[in-house]
Structure formats: C-alpha cells, structure tokens
Amino acid sequence: MPPSGEPHYTFSHVLSIDPLVIFGLGNLGPFSPARQLCEPLKKHPAYFILGPSWDLDDPTELSLTVQRYFEHKIAYPQHNFIYMVNVEHHAENLRKYGVQAFFCHHNALIDENIYKIIPTEKRYDAIYNARLDPFKRHFLARKIRSLALIYYNMSGKDGMAYRDYVFKTLPHAVSLNDTTGQYLFLPHATICQHLNAAHTGLVLSEAEGGNHASVEYLLSGIPVVSTKNTGGRNHFLLPEFSRIVDPDPISVRDAVEELKSLRIPAETIRRKTLMRSLAHRHTLQQVVQQIFDHEGARRIFADEWDTVYVNKLFNWGIPDWQVADYVEKWRGRTDKVVEPLRRNRALELEYECAKAAA
User: What are the residues whose beta carbons fall under 8 Å from the beta carbon of 185, sequence distance 6 or more?
Assistant: First the structure.
C-alpha cells in the first residue's frame, strides 16, 4: 500500500524472495537503496547487494560507504550488506575496513537485447548520451564537426541554465531530444537506433561511476572516445576500439577522427564487450549462489537468471512501498521468482491523485 508520508525512490530489483536478495544501485554510500528499504523490510531477513554509481576513490564516497555499512549492520542486524564495485582495488579497499565487497562491473548488466547493432546510415561523427550536468563536460566536444546529443535531467533553474550553455557552446550539435522545440524523452530502442547512426560514442566526464552509456555504445557496435577518468569505465574500453585522451577539445576531435577512419567491425566491438559482460554476470551469479547455499536453498541461481533479469538489474526510480508490497505479496515463496518486480506507474498515479484530493 502507498505510504502515509512521502515515498522514497530507489534503483532496485528483487532477485529472490526466500532467501530475500535485493540488488540496488545508488551513490553517496552507495547506500541509497538500503537506506530506503531497510525500514520497510525490517520484518524480513535480507541480503542487499549494493553497487555504487560514483567513484569509490573519492574519499567522501569511501568513508560514507564504510560508515553506513556499520550503521546499518547495527540498526538492522537481520540484514546483510554486500558491495559490488566497478574497480578491483575498490573491493580490496572496502575489505580492509571489514566491508563485504566483490569486483563485478555494473555495466555488465546492460541488456544486450536492447542495445544491439542495427544496420543504418552513419549520420554523425560522434554522439554523446549524457545528462545535462556540468560534470559531463559537453564543451570538450566543440571541435567535432558532426555531433549529436542525447540528454535528460534539465529541470530547474540550474538545469535549464546548463542546457542553454551547452547549445550556445555546441551550436552545430543536433539535439535528438529536442527536434520540435520541446524536450522529448527517448526510450531505449530509439536511443539504440540513434547510437547506430554514429561513428563513435563520447564519454567526457573526469569522475563518476561505471557510466552505462559507455557500454551501450559498445554493445551497439560503435567505438568510444573517453577522457582520462576515475570510476571504473575503462574496464570495458579496450584499446582495440577505444581511445582515452586528455581533456581538451582537440584531443577528443582527433580521437574521433582516428576511430572513424579505422572502420572497426561493429560485430567485433559488440562480441568482445559481451564476452567481458558475461564473465561479470557469472561472478554475480556465484555471489547469489553462495547466499542460497548458506541459507540452505536448494536452487541454482544461474538457472533462474533469465527469469529474474531486467536491464541494468534495477527498476528505475521505483518507490520503496512498491518493493515492500512485492515482497509481502510473494513472501514464503522458496522457489524462483515467477513474476519479476516491475514499477507500477498506474498505482503511483492513483496515489498522487488521492493525495491531491485529500
């Protein structure tokens, strides 16, 4: 049931009911999913597998991760917390502080059936799929002759101001979200079509998490130009089809031109990316299997993967009460999930209407 107070929104997914295993992605912790779900699920023993959306080399991010790990272990002794990180030494650093952690890149969870090769005419030298935020450093693309932009998150005064700055700095760029003068949200399938129309994909931030867009480019068969960075995305950026350059517009432009001229087969880029992704998925499956074995569940999680798997392994911004309702609905089920958790926007609309009428 919807809460009496304001809901909290999470990036999470339920992998198993009994034992209860929940995957979540979030930053500044990366405890966001567990912070929102521990209280609604306090009646249930649970395992939270938590992935960061930012760089754990950041001292603030690392310290908050460790701090919240032990705060939650004390406050919710019935819950277990395990970190899934994008850089191997991040796992080593966490383990030094007594935090359970393992190396498994969250970009490996992008659905290759959504992002794929689509034969189409190449219309752009480069495409940049990135939210409108200064840390994405759009200005570094200003020397690229043929450029397309996909974006979101432009609400509020600051967001609109940065949007105006981007289009002033990149007047030649094609805005794929704004072809009619109004912002249009693009579904995954449409984004994939646009990616396939570009010779290269861009990632221009200095620091963040794994960066989903980088592997969305690769699974779509296009090479990637990235600036030097921290956070973990380089793990998928193999030298065969990627360039990691200094953060200046000329270096970015030259790398785009080089990769464009190489005409690297799209099938090669996708195949090698998918092989690396599958290895990481196997690691995650082994971690969940260890939970099953510890809890005496006579199940093979790898056999359940195709049923429970969703793109990125989380529901985008699902309210905490929907996760709790789902767990209550299926509580006691000791075999595999048969109805994967899905965000129900119709219920949210009913809740918002009822709240407005109250």
Answer: 152, 177
Cα→Cα distances 165→152, 162, 171, 217, 246, Å? 15, 5, 10, 25, 22
Q: What is the pTM of this model?
A: 0.93
Q: Are the C-beta atoms of residues 44 and 19 closer than 8 Å to each other?
A: no
- The predicted-structure confidence for 277-331, as pLDDT tens digits, reads as follows 999 999 999 999 999 999 999 999 999 999 999 999 999 889 999 999 999 999 9
- Which neighbouring-strand residues pair with 203? 226
User: What are the C-alpha distances in Å from 292 to residues 19, 79, 151, 159, 298?
Assistant: 7, 15, 40, 45, 7
CA neighbor of 194 nearest in space, from 124, 288, 93, 102 = 124
Q: Cα separations (Å) of 7 from 24, 37, 67, 323?
A: 17, 11, 24, 11
Place of tokens 């190449």: 122
Q: State how far the alpha carbon of 107 is from the alpha carbons of 92, 248, 266, 278, 325, in Å.
A: 20, 26, 19, 11, 28
Here the tokens at position 321 are 């009460």
CB 98 within 8 A of CB 129: no
- Measured CA to CA, the distance from residue 73 to residue 81 in angstroms comes to 8
The residue with tokens 């767990």 is 327
The answer to whether 9 touches 319, Cβ cutoff 8 Å, is yes
Alpha-carbon radius of gyration of the chain: 21
Pick from 156-160, 187-191, 280-284, 331-335: least confident: 156-160
The confidence band for 30, taking pLDDT boundaries of 50, 70 and 90, is very low
Q: How far apart are alpha carbons 312 and 164 in whole angstroms?
A: 31
**CB burial readout 233-270, b (16+ within 10 A) else e:** bbbbbeeebbbbbebeeebbbebbbebbeeebebeebb
CA proximity to 153, closest of 128, 131, 136, 137: 131
Residues 128/174, Cβ–Cβ less than 8 Å:
no
